[in-house]
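does this look right to u?? flavin-adenine dinucleotide version
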Amino acid sequence: MDLNIPASGKKRAVIVGGGFGGVALARALTRRGGFQVVLIDRNNYHQFQPLLYQVATSGMEPTAISFPLRKVFRRSRDFHFRMAAVEAVDTERGRLRTSAGDVHYDYLVLAAGTDTNYFGLERVERHALPLKSVGEALALRNRVLSAMEQAVRTTDPRERSELLDFVVVGGGPTGVELAGALAELQRHIFPKDYPELDIAGQMRIYLLNAAPRLLEGFSEESSARALRDLQRGGVEVVLGAMVRDFDGHTVYYNDGESIPARTVVWASGVVANTVGGIGPERCGRGRRIRVDAYNRMEGTENVFVIGDQCLQTSDPRYPDGHPQVAQVAIQQGRSVAANLSRMAAGRAPEPFVYNDKGSMATIGRNRAVAEIGGRHFGGFVAWALWLLVHLLFIIGVRNRLAVLFDWSWSYLTYDRPLRTIIRPAPRVRPGA
Ligand SMILES: Cc1cc2nc3c(=O)[nH]c(=O)nc-3n(C[C@H](O)[C@H](O)[C@H](O)COP(=O)(O)OP(=O)(O)OC[C@H]3O[C@@H](n4cnc5c(N)ncnc54)[C@H](O)[C@@H]3O)c2cc1C
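got this back:
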């Protein structure tokens, strides 16, 4: 069985993953022409991960941050999308095996991103909630709202306390943003929705971070500001807290410290997705696949890896590899597209040079930190910059308008309107 891609006279470039890197590469390559482009993703949509936490906290509809891949490329010529999960690559024969069939490639670009890293903590993996996809964001939204419903029903004070304690593990941008958004639900929404509960007195939001400061990739000044803003918003931040276990009722950290809680969100690290046929000897830190300065997998001529999945240490500014952020993936995608065109024209490829455009994280209404071009911003200015930049990078006019509407609504009304617990319908057996 194969993926039924029609033959064309052009060289075939197969891209695995329709995330930030894969979409930027496919767009650039289809615009340049000269290749047949095949994009493969296990989902039929691109997801805008930076806003997942807003879906999880009822502030944004999932379709506002998911965009159908076929729509992105519907005007592109000699482009083919296939929804399939990639399983293995045979670099000798130039073939890729997927859940839906095989496909031959002349050039292969892996852009399959990362998955949540539980660092071998099996019980944490079983009981905690990750936040890496739209599906996981919806699962978290359901869990938060269901915990509130259960807390209203229970007459057991210990159970109510467990249900009303929410723990976020990981003090990077995802953990900080999620904890800040949960604190806003606590302040503005839940007291009105659950008048039977003493939200101010009983609900607690914890942010546990193993490192001694939040937002380690940012300056000390921004870390301190994020800590202060979160604490002012009511989040209990515990620094130097190394989580060791979570049994579904209590989260244990350091030596003997614990918090009773049913909802624990694991935002503590990522590990690169694996592709069969690429052994651990080709991988470095975080299981990222090692590449040269042109994003070529070491030891190959026609296999490239970009974005979160690759480890590129050729630039002396980034001896441990680039940060795993959207801009790196986008710029590497464009760089590989340009190099494929150069190589097709008989010219030498050019090494990738990352242009760091800055970092930002939001902490809540009117509160954020941003570092752009060596300048540090906080408060409303950083928050407005954060809104603008995220809006610009969302794919599609409809999605941008939907996000803008959701933000404006929440800002003006203090409401988070999407507080629905939507579960997949149970399967009905014939005759049952
Ligand atoms: C919650 C969260 C918040 C974030 N916030 C920010 C932020 O504010 N700013 C920022 O710059 N970065 C942020 N990031 C990081 C950023 O999203 C990543 O760096 C970026 O998505 C990496 O792009 P990528 O193309 O390498 O991978 P991804 O965008 O992760 O894309 C990978 C794609 O591969 C597909 N895929 C995976 N495995 C397979 C397979 N076996 N077969 C087929 N398809 C597969 C996936 O479905 C996905 O579409 C955040 C990440 C998360 C999880």
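The mean pLDDT is 95. idk if thats expected tbh
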